[in-house]
Structure formats: structure tokens, C-alpha cells
Hints:
Layout: H1 9-23, E1 26-27, H2 28-35, H3 39-51, E2 55-58, E3 61-64, H4 75-79, H5 83-94, E4 102-105, H6 109-118, E5 125-128, H7 131-140, E6 142-145, E7 148-151, E8 157-160, E9 164-165, E10 171-172, H8 174-181, E11 187-190, E12 194-196, E13 200-203, H9 206-217, E14 222-225, E15 237-240, E16 247-250, H10 256-265, E17 268-271
Parallel strand pairs: 4-5, 4-11, 5-8, 11-14, 14-16, 16-17
Antiparallel strand pairs: 1-3, 2-3, 6-7, 9-10, 12-13, 13-15
Helix pairs in contact: 1-3, 2-3, 5-6, 6-7, 8-9
Amino acid sequence: MGDNQxxxxxxxxxxxxxxxxxxxxxxxxxLTRKLKVSDxxxxxxxxxxxxxxxxxxxxxxxxxxxxxxxxxxxxxxKSELELIAKEDIARAAAKMAAQGSAIALAGGTTVYALxxxxxxxxxxxxxxxxxxxxxxxxxxxRTMTAVGPSPRPGAATVVLTGGVRTASDTLVGPVADxxxxxxxxDVLFIGVHGISxxxxxxxxNLAEAETNRHFVRSARRVxxxxxxxxxxxxxxxxxxxxxxxxALVTDQGLPAEARREIAELLPELVVAxxxxxxxxxx
Length: 282
């Protein structure tokens, strides 16, 4: 059977992961029929999801990995999941950053995608504890001219907090906390490990939770950027309740029931338009 060329590998894996989580397990032969790909392709995709710690292989298929609330995957592992959803979310969230404003970007792969959308917003002041996000802005700060690189007009002013680096390339700890406490932001854009009614915003990293609390306290407006798989997930440590959140920007994969629930709880819910590059959860 020929592989379905209409789906990229990461899109297929996102669909498989959604199916595993929704049904509590899937069989390889069911996935080959559903995705119209070969048995070997499905098994490669399952192997990739196993390496990411997202599923566990069993005879003939796969089941979800039991939630390990204290486990924090590295940046590279997390960046492989929900790629298209993150891009859609980033484009929608970037519209919330006004020219000349002071914004904060907390760590995470969705915030990293957002940073790439914000480099063209003029005269931003950006405070971040994300090494990856800071690199995006630093790379965009200069433009090449006939006499060499020169500062790009309107380039963002970037402040990297300092601190101890986590597995997700985020800086946390007392140094980061002190820097954030001394500042005030128009908007905080923050990614999460999980978001739920009971636990609010949560993360598996205790030090990151504390740094995130300071981010939330220092912001006039808190915007959560999170794909649909984060809804209902609970990490080890909560750092904000839902009544501290002003807006959630998510993707088309969020079920209608969850949308109704969130719309009743938060002042603003933004479901990003699908880019059209494949499945919404990609």
C-alpha cells in the first residue's frame, strides 16, 4: 500500500496521538485503514511517539502512557508535536501584541513559534526567560547592508531574564524571579503543560511554576497560548487559576464542548484559523 502523501509525518503522528488518547488505545490495522498508509509507516510513527514518551506500544497497537505529572520532556521532543497547530496559534496571538508595547514571553515551544511571528511588530520591548525565543529576536535584530550588518529599524529590545536553564530551554530560579518582579508588562504570552478548570495553569517543573507565578503577577493582561491537547491535562504544580487568565488562544482541534466551557470561564477565547496545510492538529 502506498503512503498517503497528503499528510506529513508530524501530522500523522498528531492524528494517531489524538486517536490513542480519545479511545484509550488503537490497533495498527485500524490506523492503516484510517490514514491510508502502509503498516510499516504506522509502526514507524508509533516508534517515534514511543521515543517522545507519548504512547506505549502493545501487541498489535498502542495505548496511552499513564500521565507522569512530574515528567518534563525536552524542548526538541515537545517541538515535534502539534506543529501546524502551534503555527496557527502563533499567528492569531501575534495580533494581540501592539506596536511599541512591553510584552513578556514565557518559555515553551508554542511561545517559540509566537516569537517568530512577532519579529516584524515594530518597537516591541520583549522580556523573556526563553533562550530559544531570545535567539529568534537576536537573529532578526540586524539587517545586511552594502557595508555589512546594521541595526534593523524597529527591531525589538530584548531582555533575557537570566537564571537556571531547564530541559525546555527556559531560565528559572531566583535570578529569573527577581528580574521579572522588578518589571511590568502590557501582555504576558505564556505556554502551559496543562490547563484545566480544577488546576488552572500547570507545569511539571516546580521552579518553572514559581517563575511563571511572577510573570502572571507582573502582567496587566495574561494570554495563554496552548494547543487543544493541553486542555484537561494537569501538571505537578499549578501556578495560576483560570480567573487570572484574560485570553486563551488555541487551535481548531479543541472540541465544541470544551469551547463552550472555556467561553463561560474566560473573558476571551480565540480559536485560530487553520492554515490549510493539513489537519488542524498537525
